[in-house]
Amino acid sequence: MTSVLVAGGATGIGAAVVRSFRGAGATVTLADRNVDAGGALVAEPGPGAARFIECDLSDTAAPAEAVAAAVEFGGGVDVVFYNAGVLQARALADWTVEDWDLAAAVNLRGPFLMAQAAQAALSASEHGRFIVTASTGALRGHAGMPAYHATKSGVLGLVRALADEFGPAGVTVNAVCPGWVDTTFNDGFWSHQDDPDAALQRLVDSIPLRRQAVPDDVSGLVLFLATPAASYITGQALVVDGGYTAV
What we know:
By secondary structure, this protein is of the alpha/beta class.
């Protein structure tokens, strides 16, 4: 039975991934700071067992604590999905060092520390997988979000380095790059727009499939990357964006 650690999965894409892995019979440890949503999610019925641990991934000790909890609950760790993220949007002059450091801590330092903490467990697995949520924000830019774009770009460099580091042990490392997903995670961006409704319409018109994604549009790729069919895919940034970056 596969043991999965989902870091940052109480809502949105992460919650869809938790449900999908549990539906496939995996044992899932969910680490998130949202106690109410995380607790309710793991209480949902499903074939696979699930456990929630409260975890603030801006804390340097949190990634190792999450890995230890997953090893204890699942008897090891086969898949780590790092999905925690911070998106802030404001005028450049309004940014503070604290704002920047929070984004860097969660979006970039967090997956680095989690990879460090999970290396031994993933290397001991017969099918170790380390998967990180990046973003099409690593490929394109928007005013008001320098920290988000910079850290998500950094994730792609981290993934390439980790793929080389973990490869000899048979562990694959990949980034999933969602485009615009219709969740509350993006609320900060929309509130930064002069006319959010008009901005949303312009965005949808620019996507070839003419809609934002829903979390299940992304969770299928995460599950695929955890299967034997993806055993020779590593060091990649896989885009799921309805064609947004293609045109």
